[in-house]
Every structure is written in structure tokens, then in C-alpha cells.
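User: Okay, second chain of the day. Same drill as before: sequence in, C-alpha cells out.
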Amino acid sequence: MLPERLSGREWIPLPARAPLQEKRIPLRQRANILSLPQAEVTKLTNAFRALKTSGAYDDFIRRHMTAMNTPTPAGAESNAGHSGPIFLPWHRACLWELETMLIAAAPAGTTPIAGIPYWAWEVEARLNAGNPRRSKLWTPAYLGGDGDMAAGNRVLNGPFADWQALIWNNSTRSFNRRTSAGLIRLLGRDSAGSSTLPDENQIADLMTYTTYDRPPYNKSSTSSFRNRLEGWLGGPRLHNQVHRWVAGDMLVGTSPNDPVFWLHHANVDRLWWTWQSAATPRRPYAPTNASAGTSYAGQRADDVMTSLLWSGWTPNGVQDISTLHDAQTAGTPGYSYI
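Assistant: Same drill. C-alpha cells below.
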């Protein structure tokens, strides 16, 4: 069965395409986008465009914003997908759901993407003589360039030049579509953002943390791998720093408007998996339901994660990427990073 999208209170099927089952691969493979042949990059951007056309893409933006607007537990500064232990599991599950739809978006009779690629932002400065804005990622053949200052910092080239972003209006508590086409980017030049990307020294530091998370399980947690990677501890660092460097649409709760969001979070997920796998048995999630009381409800290992397509995701259920699946993809292998 094809994935569906939520519009209001009704489930609306995506446009008919070849059955997902015919497009499954033994194990999804997520590669560095800059190592992919151009044909595979085009296949990816075409899949993004197909989801945007169907409306399914904008539903991911809505769910992400809803997660940010849902304090978890009630009254906490952490929410259903950020600023707490749930940050990494929630985005791992969300990436899987988006990846499933990208695979299903391939036209009948064609080979789908092998998996959603990652953007290894930590090496960009080294590869581009200290200027990551020169990366081929920011060219029309990939994700389009930096925003044009003469056009309100809108991106005027590349595969998403005609996209109209979905914006959250906090006053009316509703979504509105930007009237002008073009995503907004200010690569490394927003005074309210970051002028540099994280580098390999930050990654080396990150891997010295041996505990997933610690009380109070929020932005204030110290000696916490999750909080260091999310970028609050000693920040802005790593995840947060990348959002601030891309800036524009990536600075707000509707950040999935820019498809680089997914490549960025695939890299964050890759770093988490590298850290998990650095010990035997794999380094565990924290807190467990047994170790944390109801004051941390919604952030514990066996608590159901919300604002996702599938209602069965828990942090414990996404710990092993080689067996990851939801109800729709049950019985299939997960994914690997190459």
C-alpha cells in the first residue's frame, strides 16, 4: 500500500504509483551526497519535487512544527522532538518515514533512490579552501545556491526555485504559504546565525562523551552526548550551528521547508549511529522508563513518540538501524551508512 498524507482530519492517498513493494531493496544505503553520481542526485531532487507536488512534503513540515509546539512532558522546555533525549530518536523515525516516501515516489519502471543521502558538513571547510559556500551542494545541479540578496535572499536557481514555503503564523496559530517562490538562505552571512560550520575537531570532541543523556534531560544537561550533538551544550554547536549557518528557512520551526534539512539530519543520525556502535553492546538510550519518573514522560525509552506518521514509534524501537521499520515496512531490513 502506498503511503498516505494527512490533510485536516482526512487521510488522502498519494497519487498512484508503482507499489512500494516492487521498489524495496535488501538494505537501504545512505551515502554522502557529494559522492553520488549526478544522476542519483537528480533522482533524489525529482523525488522531493514529487512529494511537494502531492502535498506529502508539506505534511512533514506541519508535523515538525507541531512537535516543536508540543511541550514534552507538559510544561517542560523540551518538546516532542527537540531539546531533550527524544531529539535523536524522533528525527531518526521521521527520516525513515520521509525516506520511505522518497523511494515510493520513483516513477513506475525506474529504480528509486537507495536511501536518503547525508551531508557531511564537518568536512566542507577543509574541502573548499575554508569556504563551504563553494561546495557543489550549493549549485543548481544539487540543491540550488545561496539566496539572492536583491530578491529577499530567496534561492532563484536549482530544483526548488519554484517552491513556496509553508510558514507558521504564531499569532493566528496557523500555516500560511509564502506568496513568493523560492526558499530563503543566507549561507554563513546572517548576523543572527553562525558564520562557520562545525568542523572535525567538534566531532572528535563529541565522541569523547560516553553517556547518552543526563538529568534534567533538557538544554541544561551536562556530560550529555545528546545535548552536545543537538548543540545546546557549549553551543551553538553541531546540529544547531548548521541550522544557523544555512539560516533563512532553516532557522525556524518550519525548517524542513529546505530539503537540506533532511541531508543535515541524516548526518546527525550517522554521527549518533557511529557513537552507538563505538561500544559493545551498543551504547544505550537514556532515560529508561524504570530510571525516570513520570516527570519525564514522553522522553523515556518506551514512551510513544508523537507528531509522526506511525503511532508505534518509541526510542527503544529505533536503536538498531539495521532492523528499523514501521508498520508499513515491517519485515524489511533497515539501513546502513556508506
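Residues 199 and 208 are 15 Å apart (CA to CA).

User: Thanks, on to the next one.
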